[in-house]
Design a protein that fits this description.
The structure holds 4 protein chains of 4 kinds.
Chain A: H1 9-16, E1 40-42, H2 52-55, E2 62-68, E3 73-79, H3 88-92, E4 98-100, E5 116-119, H4 122-132, E6 141-143
Parallel strand pairs in A: 5-6
Antiparallel strand pairs in A: 1-4, 2-3, 3-5
Chain B: H1 4-11, H2 17-37, H3 47-57, H4 68-88, H5 103-124, H6 128-159, H7 164-171, H8 176-179, H9 181-194, H10 206-209, H11 219-244, H12 251-271, H13 277-301
Chain D: E1 7-11, E2 23-29, E3 32-39, H1 47-51, H2 56-64, H3 71-85, H4 92-120, H5 124-145, E4 154-155, E5 158-159, H6 165-191, H7 193-199, H8 207-213, H9 217-222, H10 229-232, H11 253-276, E6 294-302, E7 305-313, E8 319-325, H12 327-338, H13 347-353, H14 358-361, H15 375-385
Antiparallel strand pairs in D: 1-2, 2-3, 4-5, 6-7, 7-8
Chain lengths: 145, 306, 296, 387
């Protein structure tokens, strides 16, 4: 059916009896795809502290702080607000310590505080925090792994 | 009690609050329908009301190089004219508050004053978008005014009266849309031209001239113009429903018929690409000619077939 | 001089605009035929062939269309040549003896297998091209030889006008010029309708205290780069806008970013940098250090 | 007009017609445009300069952010250039995936453009529907690459991810749906009279003029110039998966619609073919951190035309110079050239016709360390400024 005018007639009439396509996002969510690149996750178990991840990070979002290299005690300071979610660090890591979450991607917040995330063992993170205490560092959100 | 009656008529019903509320509700229905036609959600029911309230509460910026009296006065004039026009319309199927032989012409011209004040408001400011918008508004006014009036006069002629209530009563027994389909279509499209709805929205085409004549308006002035437009929508729909759609006898037929018209109106809005202003003008030349042809037919048949 | 047989329909003539009329008398009406568009690149292609070969045109059209077709060829500014007509492949095959009487053929351009038969009959190279999507590089390769591919045309054009010519990579030629030689070189490319100006690059060479300006011209796979070195202190270079009008944006960018005065460029207004940017700071020069971003 | 002051209509940098900040000034006589000028740079971010301070890998992601719509194009163009300099070639499967993403991106871009152009013509219904359908391809890209805009598919020396059977199925299903819709849109834009009267014969750029200006991409192809880097100088996997160039001769807006929509069919065909004949093998090869000294030119056909990169390495970890010439810059001249004589109402359409991408052109920002202003100060500043 080709009309010389009103070519969209069929779509328009059909839509009258269809549900709108708009997703009512905050109320209805569909699961994110498997490969979605959300917040960076770090698994300290296998990390050797080679720093390849932070070297190629295009936005300097990763700082790997060495507490004791021999004992493999590292803390990763991750700035989610600087991160461009490109996954180059994941690609670079030879020990599969890094991955990007496909569940944690709703990262909006009212302040910058939650965007600085420390990964590592609790006591190690505490050492770093103590070091930074006094300076105007944001209140961290420790994550146990 | 004699004093109370006109006060109620002016401020509450049928003019005043009722027609404003009705206008805003119809604006919402229109937006919602267009959204539905475009397969999206559209605004929630209170959106037009919220918009108006927000605008009313905002600071009104009066730009430089304008006549402030005109700048403030024109939106008031537009709304006043639209509300006055509502007094002549058989809203909800009740007898119009004001009625006399020839009030159809008065109503149509009151509606034109709304557009005129829009154009004046545009040419009052020094803004380039407003100026172009004003010129386009006037061009469009001249092109649709004649066919729109002619289209409304068609039923008037067969009814033998130029009084809205008489035509309404006459139309109650006759579905004039069946005998004068051309007039009906042109009246409906004329209303779209009057309200500057797509595809006849060249005077306020946002991708070219932002908001046309109203570009410089903010706050109260903008709100009043929007209210005037929504009242114009209700009055226009009422007139067309009364004249062509078998008249309006009671609130049920009023809502039913105007909403059906609105359904068609929204459909027409979503089907076409915007006409350039000179294309609009050309379109209306044909419309006037067609109407004259229809008039000749009516004159020849002498309305006997009705 | 040898001859080349050129099949008109689908190779040099885009007759699709009247295809819907096929079968009606209108199909071959003069006005309708004259509305046919020339195929892209075909004019240039035939004009390149014309100095080396007699061009013989052939079309699948009836005799009535002869005048219209000849007029079309003239109107579209194709090289002159005799026109032969034959509606069916068999008709055209029957023309072969007459053709062989008059010409000795080097090659034929066709779009179908039947054309190939005719070419065999004529005893020449058969070049079967895709209808409406003619790649003239193929024609050039087989009828003009390697030296006539785009890159070699550019080398031929630039050699007399350049200080030095190199081929740094496949499909690339770099011509080293000085400022005075720039305009003649650009003009030679322009007059030969060689490609289009793709970009102008500036390179700041602090050690040599020079700025090198690169004019990149692209023609299909071939890229010809004109390289001009100018002094860094009093950087000035002539504008090529008089020849390539599209260069104005590139030249404005160049003068903003490198502080090169482009002599005679029609518009010197700021294009990219903000109005309040200091006039003597040129961000793409190496001595401009990007300020550290301020985090607040 | 000679005695009167010129009446200039500014469009942009903030204007509802262009959601991106370019500034055009049209001199009008009544409704007719008599002259046009352009000013860019409102969102210039200094990316070319910034590349000189980042290492080869970091630049990949910086350049990917030149454009939000053709992000893959830029990353691909840069990767190909750097790989050529380093004398490394990505494996065939990686090249095929690169082409696959490039074609998906082209579909996404052309559908987006269709909506924008329809909106400029005041045809919001077509705009809404084409963008609704564009969601399909966005979802496909999100599922395949992990992001809807900056796909980050490339790494130097290959690609990041593979295409498995599940992905293949999703892509095929999406493409099937879109192909049907594209047929519909093609028929709408070529038969709907109200729309055709806004496009046919409007903004005509004849072939000769197009060649003189040097327009590229769909603009050139709508004016009868068969110019497409995918065919002229095949990169990635386009040599194995050849493209048929779509050429229209009319050179007007309608031809640009037709070219872009027909290119969609070509993209659908290519996507199917790539999925079907996907080569097997590795996804990456090892890439040295330092790239050999040298220069290279890399060209990729973006949805808007040829993207041109000139990359120079001095043998270090960072590039010496990366020159980016984006397609829109070549095509802007055509707007200036075709605008005079048209109606003001046609301007947004003609502008949209080239599918302008301002972020592509603008790559520099001023960072001034001025202190924050209070609301009152800001208001005062505004009053002073506009006095």
């Amino acid at each position: 059916m080709k009309l010389p005018i009103a070519g969209m007639l069929r779509d328009v009439v059909e839509s009258l009896f269809k549900r709108p396509m708009t997703e009512k996002y905050p109320f209805e969510k569909h699961p994110a795809p498997e490969r979605l690149r959300g917040e960076l996750m770090w698994n300290p178990e296998k990390c050797t502290g080679c720093c390849l991840c932070s070297k190629d990070c295009p936005s300097n979002a990763i700082e790997l702080i060495t507490i004791d290299k021999k004992a493999k005690r590292f803390v990763m300071e991750y700035h989610a607000d600087r991160c461009t979610y490109c996954a180059q660090c994941v690609q670079n890591c030879r020990f599969d310590c890094l991955n990007m979450s496909n569940t944690q991607w709703e990262l909006a917040a009212l302040s910058r505080k939650p965007f600085t995330v420390y990964y590592g063992k609790d006591e190690d993170v505490q050492i770093i925090l103590d070091k930074q205490a006094g300076a105007k560092t944001p209140q961290p959100k420790p994550v146990t792994t | 009690m004699d004093i109370l009656q006109p006060i109620i008529a002016l401020f509450f019903f049928p003019a005043g609050l009722f027609v404003l509320g009705n206008g805003l509700a119809y604006m919402w229905v229109d937006r919602k329908l267009v959204a539905q036609y475009q397969n999206r959600i559209g605004p929630r029911w209170f959106q037009p009301l919220a918009d108006v309230m927000k605008l009313l509460s905002k600071e009104e910026i009066i730009p430089e190089n304008v006549d402030p009296r005109l700048f403030i006065g024109l939106p008031l004039l537009a709304l006043a004219c639209a509300l006055t026009a509502a007094l002549y319309a058989p809203l909800l199927g009740f007898q119009p508050v004001l009625s006399f032989e020839g009030d159809l012409i008065v109503t149509v011209y009151l509606l034109s004053v709304v557009t005129m004040s829009l154009a004046l408001a545009g040419s009052n400011t020094a803004d380039r978008f407003s100026l172009i918008g004003a010129v386009r508004t006037l061009t469009q006014l001249f092109s649709y005014e004649a066919p729109f009036l002619l289209a409304l006069l068609g039923p008037a002629i067969v009814a033998g009266s130029w009084q809205i209530s008489t035509i309404n009563a006459f139309a109650g027994n006759h579905w004039i849309v069946l005998t004068q389909p051309i007039g009906f279509v042109i009246a409906l499209i004329g209303l779209m031209g009057k309200l500057e709805l797509p595809p006849f929205d060249a005077p306020e085409a946002e991708t070219e001239i932002v908001k046309g004549a109203l570009t410089e308006y903010s706050g109260r002035g903008l709100a009043l113009f929007q209210l005037a437009k929504s009242v114009e929508l209700v009055v226009g729909l009422t007139l067309i429903a009364a004249f062509y759609f078998g008249g309006i006898a009671n609130p049920i037929t009023f809502f039913l018929k105007t909403l059906i018209l609105l359904l068609v109106l929204a459909g027409l809005q979503s089907l076409f690409a915007r006409f350039r202003i000179e294309q609009t003008a050309r379109w209306w030349r044909y419309a006037s000619l067609l109407l004259l042809v229809q008039w000749v037919i009516i004159a020849v048949l002498g309305g006997k077939t009705l | 001089m040898k001859a080349v047989l050129v099949f008109i329909d689908g190779i040099i003539c885009d007759y699709r605009q009247r295809e819907h009329l096929s079968g009606t008398p209108d199909y071959i009406k003069r006005d309708v035929i004259l509305k046919d568009a020339p195929m892209p690149d075909s004019r240039r292609g035939l004009h390149e062939l014309a100095p080396r070969y007699n061009l013989v045109y052939m079309a699948a059209r009836p005799e009535e269309a002869r005048k219209a077709t000849e007029d079309w060829l003239a109107a579209m500014n194709y090289p002159q040549g005799p026109l032969f007509l034959g509606i069916t492949p068999a008709d055209r095959l029957a023309l072969a003896p007459a053709l062989l009487d008059q010409f000795e053929f080097e090659g034929g351009l066709g779009t179908h297998w039947e054309d190939n038969e005719l070419h065999l009959e004529l005893g020449c190279k058969s070049i079967i091209l895709k209808e409406f999507e003619v790649d003239w590089e193929i024609v050039r390769r087989y009828l003009l030889g390697q030296e006539h591919t785009a890159l070699h045309v550019a080398i031929d054009l630039l050699t007399p006008r350049a200080l030095k010519i190199t081929e740094p990579a496949v499909h690339r030629v770099d011509a080293y010029l000085d400022a005075g030689r720039l305009l003649p070189a650009v003009k030679s490319l322009h007059d030969a309708r060689w490609g289009y100006l793709s970009a102008i690059t500036g390179l700041d060479d602090v050690q040599a205290n020079e700025i090198e300006v690169l004019y990149h011209f692209c023609n299909r796979a071939a890229v010809a780069t004109l390289r001009v070195r100018i002094s860094r202190d009093k950087a000035a270079i002539p504008s090529i806008c008089s020849i390539k009008a599209g260069a104005t944006f590139f030249e404005r960018e160049l003068s903003e970013m490198f502080g090169i005065e482009v002599l005679g460029t029609p518009n010197t207004d700021r294009l990219f940098l903000p109005d309040e940017w200091p006039p003597d700071v040129h961000p793409l020069r190496k001595d401009y250090i990007v300020p550290e971003p301020v985090e607040n | 007009m000679t005695t009167l002051e010129k009446f200039i209509v500014p469009i942009g940098p903030q204007h509802p017609a262009l959601k991106e900040p370019g500034h055009f000034e049209f001199t009008v006589d009544g409704e007719t445009v008599t002259a046009a000028t352009v000013r860019l740079g409102y969102v210039h971010r200094g990316i070319e300069k910034a590349t000189e301070n980042r290492n080869w890998t970091q630049n990949l992601y910086l350049l990917e952010r030149i454009c939000g719509i053709c992000s893959h194009t830029h990353a691909l163009c840069y990767s190909l250039g750097v790989e050529a300099l380093a004398e490394v070639t990505a494996p065939p499967r990686a090249q095929a995936i690169r082409s696959l993403v490039a074609e998906l991106e082209r579909v996404h871009s052309h559908l987006l453009w269709l909506g924008v152009a329809a909106h400029e013509a005041g045809f919001d219904t077509l705009f809404m529907y084409s963008w609704r359908d564009r969601e399909t391809i966005m979802d496909v890209l999100e599922g395949l690459t992990g992001n809807r805009v900056n796909y980050s598919a490339n790494v130097l020396g290959g690609v990041k991810f593979d295409v498995d059977d599940k992905q293949t199925d999703t892509i095929r299903r999406g493409i099937d749906y879109l192909e049907e819709r594209t047929h519909h849109y093609l028929s709408v834009v070529t038969t709907d009279n109200t729309f055709v009267q806004r496009t046919r014969g409007v903004g005509t750029l004849p072939r000769e003029q197009a060649e003189d200006i040097g327009v590229i991409g769909p603009m050139a192809r709508a004016s009868g110039i068969a110019r497409d880097v995918r065919v002229d100088a095949p990169y990635a996997a386009y040599a194995q998966f050849p493209v048929n160039v779509i050429v229209e001769t009319a050179g007007d807006l309608e031809a640009r619609f037709v070219v872009r929509l027909k290119e969609l069919f070509e993209s659908y065909r290519l996507i199917r073919e790539i999925l079907e004949k996907m080569p097997t093998g590795d996804l990456t090869v090892r890439m040295p951190r330092k790239v050999k000294e040298g220069e290279t030119i890399s060209r990729v056909e973006a949805p808007r035309g040829e993207a041109f990169y000139f990359i120079k390495s001095n043998g270090g970890e960072k590039p010496e110079r990366v020159k980016v010439r984006t397609p829109s810059l070549c095509n802007f001249t055509s707007v200036i050239a075709t605008a005079p004589g048209h109606q003001l109402a046609d301007m947004p359409m003609i502008l949209a016709g080239i599918d302008p991408c301002f972020s592509c052109n603008d790559r520099m920002v001023v960072l001034n360390g001025e202190s924050l202003m209070t609301w009152e100060q800001l208001r005062q500043y505004g009053i002073e400024y506009y006095k």
